[in-house]
Amino acid sequence: MLNVYKQTFLHSSATKVRSLQLNFLHSFTSFFFFSPTSTLYIYFFSSVESVSAERGKPLAEDEVRLGLRSGGRLELESGAGARRGLKPTERNIVICCSLKIIMLSRHASKLLRHSYSRAVSNCRSFASANVETDPVERDPAPFFFNEEVQACLRTLTTVDYSKVLRTRRDGHKLKPPEYKFLTDEELEEATKAARRRAEKFLQMPPVVKQRLDPSAPLCEDAALQSHDTVKYVFTDITFGLRDRERLIVIREPNGTLRHATWKERDRLVQSFFPKPERQIQKPKMFEGEYLQDLLNRKEYEFILDRACVQFEPDNPDYQAVTREVYEHINAEKHFDILRSTRHFGPMVFHLVWTSNIDNLLLEMIETGRVKDAALLIRLYHMIHPTTKSAVERCEHTDDAEFIMHYARLESTRKDKIQKLLQSYKELQREREIVAEGIKLAHGISSEITDKV
């Protein structure tokens, strides 16, 4: 058995095979077997039409068929023309493979009949199947993607066009500025295009539950124990599949067949289908002192942008990095650095999700964003509807009173919130007095203004 696997199946013979009839696999297309020792290269090519062929159909002269026979035996058959079209050494490989497949049929056919369809369906729903294994921990995704929550996060992000559409130092060549004379209609259209571009830049990264590695093995075959000292990786490289839908299984040296872990999947998928700017290994900038140095330099947006490129949203490394950045911003009260960026909404959601909004609330009141502060508390009530401030409704419609209602029942810093709100009210009264004085200086009375 091992001698057959150690031989190299020549590419020239694989290209001469028109179709590989697979009567027992109904969704098996373009499967690729890879050995880390680079001694095993076997290509199976099939098409949707060839899969539907019935067992027992006569072979064409240039066809090769892998079929399931009575008693659960697997046999490799080839037409006379296919055998004549191969070199003698290649014919020997085909015949030898046929004999060895029959010898392995007892375990292989059992695995294929009872495990393959289940393995494919499990892999095709890999993300949703693995994130729901812990019913105690809540999944943030349904809350984050709620339309009302999304509207609140977009409002809290605010849009500063000078910041959103600023020149970015991301390695791309800068375009020279263009000056145009526009009509009113053209100016309005250009403004709408700029708004659409700003909305694209402010698209928030998703917040989802952390993924879990599959634990149950697919098969444990004692006959394959110690067959080799390396692991065999089987990867579905069918064109057009999503990365999460690809079946990737690993045969351990002890004979255990299991799904690949998420780290193994990420490494293999990046090897076969590389994504721009994504590295196979985790960059050093996300580790220890390197990350801390970037945080001390306030490079928050750079860290989060790079994390979005390197990791998937449910990757534990991505969530660990973003959590550390958000907590550092919250501790240092550097919220304004992320405001009007695509990461401000996820940061607000994280603080609300962890019931840690007091610092952000204080910052909003200090900067005069009282409406945003009230909206932040309403968002908190959406995600935590059983809290005291959510259950005991506030009778006042004023934003300041609504914030004070929350501070009395929930906040650990209610004294400071109360002082800031008092200062805000006094400032508002002073502004009203100044505005009234300006009106009187221009001969405009408040009564006339009210009538208008």
UniProtKB/TrEMBL annotation:
Keywords: Ribonucleoprotein, Ribosomal protein
Family annotation (Pfam families): MRP-S22
GO cellular component, one term: mitochondrial small ribosomal subunit
Name of this chain's protein: 28S ribosomal protein S22, mitochondrial
Lineage, broadest ranks: Eukaryota, Metazoa, Ecdysozoa, Arthropoda, Hexapoda
Originating organism: Temnothorax curvispinosus
Record-level Gene Ontology MF annotations: structural constituent of ribosome
Keyword Repeat: no
